[in-house]
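Hi, here's the filled form for the chain we discussed.

Project: internal
Contact: R.S.
Residues: 677
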Amino acid sequence: MKGSKQVERRRIMAVHLPESLMSKRIQNLVGRFVDEDGELGFVFQSTRYGRGVMGLELAEPRLRNLLAWLAEKQETLLLTGRRSREDPELFWVWGLDPGGPGSSMPAIFAKEKKTELSLAKLNAMLRLLGIEPTEQDLTVQDSSVEFQTEEELKLLMRVCGEGYPPEIRAWAERTLDQCEKIWSGTDRDKQHAIRALTYILNINWSIRTLDLPSLEEARQIMDSTFYGLEPVKQRILEVLAQMKRTGTMPSWGLLLNGPAGVGKTSVAKAVARILNLPMTVLDMSTIRDIEDLTGSSRIYSNGRPGRIIQQLYAAKSANQVMVINELDKSNTNNGRGNPADALLTLLDGSGFTDTFMDVAIPTRGIFFVATCNELGDISGPIRDRFLTINIPGYSGEEKKEIFSRYTLPKLTKRMGIGPEEFTMTPQALEIFCTRYATQPGVRDLEQYGEKLLSRFLYRRESGEENFCCDLDMLHSVLGPERCVERVMALFPGMVKTACRGERGVHCFPIQASARPGRGEMTLIGVHSKAVRDSCQVAYEFVCRVLRGSARPRVMDVALFVPQDVDDTCGSALGVAAAAALLSALTGRELEPDCAFLGSCDLYGNTYFDDISADAYLDALEAAGVTTVYAAAGTGNKLYEYRSRRSIRVVEAANLSMLLEAAACSLPAALKKMEKEE
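And the returned structure, exactly as it came back:
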């Protein structure tokens, strides 16, 4: 089925063979196109069969202007194709060869060429007409070929004008008319206009029909590109199934969210390979000005196109996978415009206007794949234009497989080491992947692996023959272990929570202690006003619910928050602060594998509104948390499709009910305090 599609795509025209050739085995024809009163024909030339005029049937009507121009220039061409099996009179043409280096045209005919038309430029014209060359075509694919002069651009509009969208064609005709009115070739306005035309007219704007692989082939592509991440692969296959059914790209893109080094770029490359489209990268971390995306006006001498147009121009195609890298770094507003604002119209697919071009650019053929480290740093309107796929960090077992099957072979090949020369003991491999390479991604695997191989080469050059990487070598080369297992002792007043800071979401303990005093609270390590207010509200709630006891009035409490917390989500510590204060005042110790999330008000009503909630699960799971006590609705916000999650979420709309579910019930606490008093 797939092969038949390729053959159909190659049939750009049919030539009616004369009777003298119908019985011959024809593989190509040499001759010239003729245009007699609007009727196109082909005059073949042969040293064996002489000359003759043959009629044409165009399978691609957009070729008429190109063939008419070739007829006007009396260009000698080699037509490649095959005889029709159904009708022997027809010769199906799928390639045009104008001669030149690498051509299959006989030398005797190549000498009769009237003009110099290269294979690459003819191939570029066919692309702009929406006729993609295939591997069996004689035309070469050279993306560096461009039409830049005013005469070449006019030729493009004459020959390939039908292949441009109506708005692009109207703009190009208007701009070319303006160029004709400017006589000086050095005029700034004319130079800018020619530059704009060069960018726009050298891009293939035709919308290609998606030629998608089967789901099995797509999985093989992903397996060969990145290891593991089965839920991510499953989600991409579901998107591919939708594309195969509709035949079009979805109205939304993919947003790959995860820590650095987990393979987001590799996933984006796999998506481009699956869609069989070129890939360009737009790095938002380097963009500090909205003009970098939208371009600057042509009224300035240093006017230039924006990066969106530059990416389209680099691929020479409006059908591409555009990777928006580090999307969460785009919310930079330095007084010169927020770059994120320019992305809204780009992602909508309704058209993007570049200031330098001054024309709406269609973006229907672009499939956007964005990457980010912090989902909460992306504005809601932009997030709504993507389907978010969360990419978790790799476990120690997965890192062992990645290092053994991918990273180590790549390093040994790069450093000229044989596959059997370098070996590691199982214990050394285990410690290397779990105690040294502790980042969520796999970049540190390559960094530390290269250090080990460098030491290996040094010892080999020193004359050592038998060599195996063991624990002693790990410690001598890499130093002390980066990760040391330790068990933190829990006391009354210690409660685990998770919150977002400058470096992402982290799980950490909040510590509270009580001592005789005058009923005052001291905050330690709290620098944010939002965190300070949240802790004060939690303390007032605890004092209110314990108003039947004298303890809050005769005990001072200290509350320690040992983690920098983002001011925008500092209120999310309220539930954990209340649990820690109540635990310290009552002396009840909480379970070490539980955590508290959310904020509360003076009456104990709970809330959880952190928009980066998807990142919490990784932090909680890494800290060994199995049960989360949180505000009502938190379970939905922490939803994750990965089946390996084993975290239970207990929800309650009021803090009193939540603490009771956590075996820290207020009635029991009051009863215990009454006995002690």
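Let me know if anything looks off before we file it.
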